Amino acid sequence: MAYWEQVFNIIKKDITIELRAKEAVSAMLVFGLMVIVVFSFAFNLGTREQIEIAPGLLWIAFTFAGILGLNHSFAAEYENHCLQGMMLAPVPRSAVYIGKLTGNFIFMFLAELIMLGFFIWLFDVRFTGRWHLLVLTMILGTLAFAIIGTMFSAVASGIRMREFLLPILQFPVVLPAIIFAVEATADLLEEDTLAGFFDGIKFLSAFNIIFFTLCVLLFEYILED
Amino acid sequence: MQTPVPVFEAQNLVKRFGRLSALKGINIKVHEGDFIIIFGPNGAGKTTFLKIAAMLTAPTEGSIFFRGKNIRDAGSSARSEVGFITHSTFLYQNLTARENLRFYGRMYRLKDLDEQIGAKLEAVGLLERADDPVKDFSRGMLQRLTIARAFLHNPFILLLDEPYTGLDRTASEILNDLLRSFNAAHRAGLMTTHNIDQGYDIATHAAVLHKGQIQFFSNTKNITKEEFTAKYSEIVGKR
User: Fold this and answer.
1) Cβ-contact B14, B25 below 8 angstroms
2) ipTM score
3) Taking CB atoms and an 8 Å cutoff, what residues of chain B touch A6?
4) Hey, where are the domains in chain B?
5) Residue of A nearest to B48 (CA)
6) pTM to 2 decimals?
7) What architecture is domain B8-236?
8) Is B217 helix (H, G, I), strand (E, B) or coil?
9) Running along chain B, 239 residues long, what does each successive block of 10 average in pLDDT?
């Protein structure tokens, strides 16, 4: 119980800071919305082509915006060496990881929901009757991105060139999850069977379980210099 | 008669950063009531030693014991007994003073947290500014809040890394008062500094750390400040 109280304490601290500073979500939103607007002007396609290309564009906007949020996540912890302050306390390192991961996921998911609304309006795509499945895909895809991103943002945050290093480290690892998230989203836009969609969901679930376990186990070594 | 188990013990600590050896076999014991000050010039390995003592980084070789237990076995429970004051404040700019202390207090699972926060803020003269964001604090106020944070969980052993660096007069006096109460409570302290004028009077033992090794160690009853200063100059060399 005490473990989860400490996880909750870290999440609460991150949410309080974000509500006050409004840095992570607003930066992700501004960037994500700009990407969507540029795409909407760049691709003036018919309905059929739009449906084919839309899932990829949506997840590009999500991932680019997500990188901004992740870069911010541990940078705040390195200001005044707050991460060291946390490490001094009798807190399991995995609790710090889960706390930071949850905060990152919440901020990214909130920004993505707003971006999604904007995307649907501009691209006129319809997920009629499949909203719950789209939300499930977004949760699993974003979680995959946050699981890997939280780990690597901790690695990169103490380094001077972290803005460049984080995407270089993160994208190769998270790419399979993004591909399956794009395919699952595309399946929701097609009118035929959802068999392919559930394959994507299974892959994303397995990816999240495996990498979450790995990151929880490895995080202690990441924080030690 | 049995020798008392030291509160803190470093055994043959070695720390290497690539080819550079920052620590070359440090051995030191801290008993209850001891306040040991390690003097040394810049680059002597003082900060590295305290970071290992605070369990923020692992030694390349050697071991740390808290109350006779290797920290590898003691796990996170040993951390609740250690307080650390360093150049960094460990404070979140966008949280208030009270929120910062509450966050750390919960990390240490303290009981009666609000009362303890109030008492510590009063001790450092920041009770009236408790609900102001830390980003609005002056340097001196930040330092006082840093002291409150380090003492919040009533640590048994206090590690201080150049604690007087940059402190204004008020903050220095507050720190001195807290250290005197800390010593009176028969706890244990380990401080590093390059300035012999700072803290020698409250030390029970003084050591010289130079080139990654403890070159001299003595009870302060056996050596006057002037004699120690001469010894220090002899080891480190006058500039």
Assistant:
1) yes
2) 0.87
3) 106-107, 109
4) 8-236
5) A225
6) 0.89
7) 3-Layer(aba) Sandwich (3.40)
8) strand
9) 82 91 92 91 90 90 90 79 91 95 95 93 92 91 92 93 83 84 88 84 90 91 90 79
